Amino acid sequence: MTIAPFPAARFRRLRRSDALRRLTTETTLSTDDLIWPVFVREGQDAEDPIASMPGVTRRTIDRLLPQVEEAAQLGIPAVCLFPYIEPGLKTEACEAAWDPDNLSNRAIRAIKDAVPDIAVMTDVALDPYNANGHDGIVRDGEIVNDETVEALVRMTLAQAEAGADIIGPSDMMDGRIGAMRAALERDGHHGVSIMSYSAKYASAFYGPFRDAVGASGALKGDKKTYQMNPANSDEALRLVERDLTEGADMVMVKPGMPYLDICRRVKDSFGAPTFAYQVSGEYAMMAGAVERGWLDGDRVMLESLLAFKRAGCDGILTYFAPAAARILNG
Ligand SMILES: NCC(=O)CCC(=O)O
């Protein structure tokens, strides 16, 4: 970078008017960058607010559809579905995860039927269906990898069959991307893409999400034997490389804001479509402070989302998606 000495260089020259600031903007945020995570529950004509995520609601499928329709009209390219599974359906074997008629698969079909143009992303992990709240099958206190991968492949195929556009493995088992890709190809789902949660950290920022999907009570222990150590960065690159080699179409870093350094390294190292998940705890921090009048809601929302783009992300999973789209669309 070449910089003239002062006063030949005065950085304030290009900041002095809105026109000049817009002209020299390096990064832009648009509705095209957003994926909206939504929570779905059983029943008819009902919804529950999620106390730890002000402004976020868990809805029955019939109540979710108009929201997804509105998201499509706003130009949001994709929604990501998370089901609230009734405690009675959670088992040690997690069979409900690959039931073709489970809540998540019914919701995929309903959305693809009612709003065909919006892309539907899914969550592939056993935790909503697991009696012990883990993302994998537990045997003698251990989360077993290879048996879990077999279950995740069954779950993936059921979601693809239901019409999912993007499969989102959030489980962090080893070898799952290759196994899923091979099964999808074998069964003719050539166009179904995979966004791998490649660098998913064992984070304290997921707390409100576990309230939203009813997993808080179920989880025994922690997820540190499969999710990443927050201290590690080189490992994230190795995981992303591994997942791309196994056939991931897109990769994700999660959580988002505390891990922007990882986003930047991933984008610079691989140039692959890179996403970040601005998770429930990040949302709750901002929404909670806004509720108290401590922060300006629109400004922190847009600044936080722009930061992901500046860090190299192609898009962001964010609970703010509709609110941000309304502003971004002017
Ligand atoms: N697979 C999704 C999560 O684990 C949590 C997301 C969040 O905290 O928003």
Automatic annotation (TrEMBL):
GO cellular component, one term: cytosol
Catalytic activity, reaction form: 2 5-aminolevulinate = porphobilinogen + 2 H2O + H(+)
Biological processes, Gene Ontology terms: protoporphyrinogen IX biosynthetic process
Active site: K200 (schiff-base intermediate with substrate), K254 (schiff-base intermediate with substrate)
Pathway: Porphyrin-containing compound metabolism; protoporphyrin-IX biosynthesis; coproporphyrinogen-III from 5-aminolevulinate: step 1/4
GO molecular function, one term: zinc ion binding
Protein name: Delta-aminolevulinic acid dehydratase
Provenance organism: Mesobaculum littorinae
Lineage, highest ranks first: Bacteria, Pseudomonadati, Pseudomonadota, Alphaproteobacteria, Rhodobacterales
